[in-house]
Amino acid sequence: MRIIDLRSDTMTQPTDAMRRAMAEAEVGDDVFGEDPTVNQLEELAAERLGKEAALYVSSGTMGNLVSQLKHCGRGDEIILGSHAHTFFFEQGGSAAVGSIHPRTVPNQPDGKLALEDIEIAIRGDNVHFPRSRLILLENTHNLCNGCPLEIDYMKAVGEIARRHKLKIHVDGARIFNAAIALGVEPKDLTAEADSVSFCLSKGLAAPVGSMVCGTQDFINQARRARKVLGGGMRQAGVLAAAGIVALNEMVARLAEDHANAKKLALGLAEMPGISINPDDIQTNIVFFEVTREGMVPEEFVQKIDAEGIRMLPVGPQKVRAVTHYHITSADIDQALGVIAKVMSKVK
Ligand code: TLP
Ligand 1: distance of its center to the CA of 193 in Å? Predict the structure, then answer.
């Protein structure tokens, strides 16, 4: 039975072109700055996001952490969404490793932080308070249906940050999905950001790695932070080679993933016992609720798993499905067929 794995776009396997590039990659010791393939990937990433320099890191989590460590000192405060990946799923690394204080404001359903909420959260100069240093935004926003944040919103947050002398970090794990969905250049989405991290290993299908982009000075500092976290890699060019293919060949096709996600959402909206508004789905992440009485998401997921369809239960009612390179339009038909069968058997 072919498994249709919709748990995450992290499930993507390297393409044939990536495997060839990896086998043939020219390498050197990257801690000495001597890996030509890593250097090439870093230049390419910086150029795509309109920044001076970039750093290859092992994961999105590491990219977000080194960025926070460089923007903030002990006891400084970061303003971020209540549903930010950095707050929810990164082990509280900012506090645990960096002694950085997280101040959450509610994420709106579209992944934004309301501008007035950001303003209110910014601390005045007072001996009782931590110092506000950084605003962290997520684009696309994973837990908010993969919503993309538009350029105008970024500009509005940029204006607040400048007025209060705060920095902006964008967790752009899926920034290319945002750019494709909005029909804009990625660099226009990150123009207001002092730093941005993005993942090569999700929809872009590279096996390992994320990039942090920013000014040359910031990236020099981030390189030190990466080293102390144990992230200094040596002949990493064998991995970076796949990242170069990811950036050159895998961005434009993300539109297919978005179309498949929309198709899934529209199909699910027709199913009894499932609740979803397909208008909410703009990129490759689909959250829906199992509303059928007596059926919890874990049971739903187990039942479809037995028929070769994998999804992730999230919280008491929700299930997440993420489309990606290995998911075809026919796979969506197959998944919808299985779900219809499973739901029809439930009383
Ligand atoms: N997200 C993963 C899981 O951790 C939930 C997924 O399957 O979606 N920022 C965002 C917005 C992310 O979605 C993720 C990973 C990360 C950062 C962390 O990236 P990694 O997993 O490379 O550390």
Answer: 19
| Strand-by-strand arrangement of the 274-275 sheet | 274-275, 285-290, 318-322, 312-314
Nearest one of 197, 85, 92 to 143, comparing CA atoms: 85
Give 126 Cα–ligand 1 centroid separation in angstroms: 35
pLDDT average, residue stretch 10-25 = 98
Give the residue, 344 or 17, on which the prediction is more confident: 17
Pick from 158, 116, 106: which is nearest to 135 by CA?
Answer: 158
- With contact defined as beta carbons under 8 Å apart, do 232 and 31 qualify? yes
pLDDT, one tens digit per residue, over 281-338 is 999 999 999 998 889 999 999 999 999 999 999 988 899 999 999 999 999 999 999 9
CA atoms within 13 A on the CB side of 297: 17
Contact of 8 with 211, CB cutoff 8 Å? no
User: Which atom of ligand 1 sits closest to the CA of residue 138?
Assistant: 11
- DSSP reduced 3-state for 154: helix
Residue with CA closest to ligand 1 atom 5: 89
AA identity, residue 155: K
* Lowest-confidence pick of 198-207, 225-234, 293-302: 293-302
252 by DSSP, 3-state: which? coil
Cβ within 8 Å of residue 52, ≥6 positions away: 46, 214, 215, 216, 219
What are the DSSP calls for 90-103, one per residue? STTHHHHHH-PEEE
Evaluate whether 225 touches 61 at the Cβ level (below 8 Å).
Answer: no
Quote the pTM value. Answer: 0.97
Q: Where are the beta strands (DSSP E) in the chain?
A: 4-5, 53-57, 77-81, 101-105, 132-138, 167-171, 195-199, 210-214, 274-275, 285-290, 309-310, 312-314, 318-322
Question: Per-residue pLDDT averaged across 211-224, rounded?
Answer: 98
